[in-house]
């Protein structure tokens, strides 16, 4: 027999736990008890024959603590506590998919732990208890946290399936990747890889989706749950951008004024997801997410954003060296020659008149930003930074200047 509160083993005749002092008052097996209003005890012991970490019975009860219904599970073994501590510390953060090593298939014991505890939660709720927290041997998890972690384990299973398939079909996947870059659009993997075991993959993701929806019902403003819901939605229905966009937009609304570093991180992830909310990748959102990750010191995410941005820009073909003409939204025009050694010169014409320009330039390929500085007529200092947004048409580029104005430019020599 074990203590409901701390999990310590109890002598057969004990009336109080020798470790924490909790009264030994577990209900008799098969004797449901009803909440009479005080809320002190409304659970029942589990029926015989249920297995839970190798035992043939599960003792549990539901208590009202600080207004919440808390499921307290007894008969806690040291092995179970070790596995639960691993579950408690399990990360729920989204990780960059292409730069982090794909997770191996989750340990069966850990996945089984979550399923067993959820089975007890469902049993308690079938008797009318709306459980919000679970206590096992002194450790506590919220029901939403448990649902989220089980969903993540299922997602990891599905991702591992595709990673194994990708290793066997690296050439085909690389070809599809470059096809997406040439098309400047995202390729639906379900169309490109019809021989993959999509039914099993989908089954895992749909189970994860149902668990996440349950967590969302309990905690509607949990931004992390919503981010995982968006990721699963995108994996299940890559072409349904509207459903994906709604989930991500909801996160951005919830975190419009992030108060903690954790909320700032979630907002950066939501901004990253917004880059993929349409058929074409939105480089503005991708760069904005990159800046947010950089401010938080999230190096892997910064590298991931840079890699994706470079891949998207690879086929745009902007190479600054040569002669270019720039036209600003305010009507000003500049003709500039960019020398390979970083020097530049040309002419500038605006509402104030005409002038000659000489200076230096550099180009940051990761952010696709052209930096120019120098002097006009040898007297007036000049500097600007133009971030390349893409091509309006072949050979004609659109950029965003440091002051927020739009710039159109094209090669003339």
- Largest sheet, if any? 8 strands, antiparallel, barrel
Low-pLDDT runs: 26-58, 98-107, 181-185
Q: What is the averaged pLDDT score?
A: 76
- Give the N-to-C terminal Cα separation: 86 Å
Number of strands: 12
What is the H-and-E element order?
EEHHEEHHHHHHHHHEEEEEEEE
Q: Which CATH architecture of the domain at 322-411 is right?
A: Beta Barrel
Main sheet: strand order:
5-6-7-8-9-10-11-12
Write down the Rg. 29 Å
Structure annotation, total helices: 11
Strand content: 15-25%
CATH class of the domain at 322-411: Mainly Beta
Q: Give the CA-based shape.
A: elongated
Write the layout of secondary structure elements.
Elements: E1 60-65, E2 68-73, H1 78-88, H2 108-126, E3 131-136, E4 139-142, H3 143-168, H4 170-183, H5 189-192, H6 198-218, H7 223-236, H8 241-254, H9 261-274, H10 283-296, H11 299-313, E5 322-328, E6 333-338, E7 343-350, E8 353-364, E9 369-376, E10 380-393, E11 396-401, E12 406-411
Helix pairs in contact: 1-2, 2-3, 3-6, 6-7, 7-8, 8-9, 9-10, 10-11
């Amino acid at each position: 027999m074990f203590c409901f509160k701390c999990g310590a083993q109890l002598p057969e005749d004990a009336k109080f736990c020798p470790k924490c002092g909790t009264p030994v008052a577990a209900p008799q097996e098969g004797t449901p008890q009803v909440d009479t209003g005080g809320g002190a005890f409304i659970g029942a012991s589990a029926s015989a024959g249920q297995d839970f970490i190798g035992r043939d019975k599960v003792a549990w009860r539901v208590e009202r603590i600080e207004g919440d219904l808390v499921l307290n599970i007894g008969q806690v073994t040291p092995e179970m506590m070790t596995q639960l501590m691993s579950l408690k510390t399990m990360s729920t953060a989204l990780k960059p998919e292409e730069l982090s090593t794909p997770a191996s298939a989750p340990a069966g014991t850990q996945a089984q732990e979550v399923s067993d505890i959820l089975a007890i939660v469902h049993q308690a709720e079938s008797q009318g208890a709306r459980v919000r927290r679970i206590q096992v041997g002194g450790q506590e998890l919220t029901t939403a946290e448990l649902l989220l972690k089980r969903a993540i384990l299922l997602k990891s299973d599905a991702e591992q399936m595709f990673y194994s398939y990708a290793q066997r079909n690296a050439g085909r996947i690389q070809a599809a990747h470059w096809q997406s870059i040439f098309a400047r659009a995202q390729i639906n993997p379900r169309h490109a890889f019809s021989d993959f075991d999509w039914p099993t993959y989908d089954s895992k993701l749909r189970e994860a989706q149902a668990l996440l929806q349950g967590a969302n019902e309990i905690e509607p403003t949990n931004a992390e749950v919503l981010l995982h819901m968006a990721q699963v939605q995108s994996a299940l229905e890559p072409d349904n951008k509207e459903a994906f966009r709604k989930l991500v937009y909801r996160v951005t609304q919830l975190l419009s004024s992030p108060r903690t570093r954790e909320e700032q991180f979630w907002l950066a992830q939501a901004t990253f997801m917004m880059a993929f909310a349409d058929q074409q990748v939105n480089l503005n959102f991708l760069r904005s997410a990159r800046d947010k990750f950089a401010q938080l010191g999230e190096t892997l995410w910064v590298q991931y954003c840079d890699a994706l941005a470079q891949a998207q820009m690879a086929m745009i073909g902007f190479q600054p060296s040569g002669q270019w003409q720039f036209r600003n939204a305010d009507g000003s025009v500049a003709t500039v020659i960019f020398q390979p050694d970083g020097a530049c010169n040309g002419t500038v014409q605006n509402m104030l008149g005409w002038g000659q320009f000489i200076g230096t330039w550099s180009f940051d390929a990761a952010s696709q930003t052209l930096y120019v500085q120098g002097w006009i007529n040898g007297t007036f200092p000049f500097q600007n930074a133009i971030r390349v947004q893409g091509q309006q048409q072949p050979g004609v580029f659109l950029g965003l200047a440091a002051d927020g104005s739009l710039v159109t430019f094209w090669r003339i020599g």
